[in-house]
Design a protein that fits this description.
Length: 217
């Protein structure tokens, strides 16, 4: 069997993501990634010539998944414009929690990503946030959302979801989208900015009660 057939690109990325999340980017060598895959470092060179290329591919992987989920919502003609922001929130939460290792790596290794000028990471992040900001401003204009600074609101929302991934990673847990964490976060992040209480999801109250119980208040 050839070295190329012995390891797949997707396997390299998934193992590297776990190792980067656990030990950090600088502390993880290509040799260690190869050892976890039971292949030589040379076998990895069929797909990636350096750790930088792996890190860049991980960023590309997560951003592509996030962007596709956003575009799916934005292209759905059945979603009313005043509800679009809530749907975007749910899509973001689902993809983020389902890719917690990637999120942790890309949050912690932001300086390393910025060093890779060819990746244009900050520009891509801004373009992604702009999808949220535009939907938020449309929601405010329609009266569905509370008037607020869109940039602050959107970036605070993204930071909260990222923070949940960090907390879960610190506890050694994974948060698949199938758990009620998705519904919980959507209720807390979405219902809290709706301007009309009548529009808030019926489950928002139960979600807030769950948080109170969880923190012992």
């Amino acid at each position: 069997m050839s070295a190329r057939a012995a390891v797949r690109r997707t396997d390299v990325l998934s193992h590297a993501a776990r190792l980067f999340a656990r030990d950090g980017y600088r502390a993880t060598s290509l040799a260690l990634v190869g050892a976890n895959l039971d292949v030589t470092r040379q076998a990895l060179y069929y797909h990636f010539k350096s750790k930088d290329e792996i890190l860049g591919a991980l960023f590309e992987q997560l951003m592509t998944r996030l962007e596709l989920s956003m575009l799916e919502v934005l292209s759905d003609q059945e979603i009313e414009s005043e509800s679009r922001f809530e749907y975007l929130v749910r899509a973001h939460v689902e993809v983020t929690l389902d890719n917690a290792d990637l999120v942790v790596v890309l949050m912690r290794e932001r300086p390393e990503l910025e060093r890779l000028e060819w990746l244009h990471a900050e520009e891509r992040r801004r373009d992604y946030a702009r999808l949220f900001i535009d939907a938020f401003e449309s929601g405010v204009a329609s009266g569905a959302l509370r008037p607020a600074n869109a940039w602050i609101s959107v970036n605070a929302l993204i930071a909260v979801v990222n923070g949940v991934c960090l907390l879960a990673h610190g506890e050694g847990d994974r948060l698949p989208a199938s758990t009620n964490v998705v519904e919980l976060l959507q209720d807390l992040l979405g219902a809290g900015i709706l301007d009309d209480p009548a529009l808030r999801p019926a489950t928002a109250g139960s979600a807030r009660a769950g948080v109170v119980a969880a923190v012992g208040l």
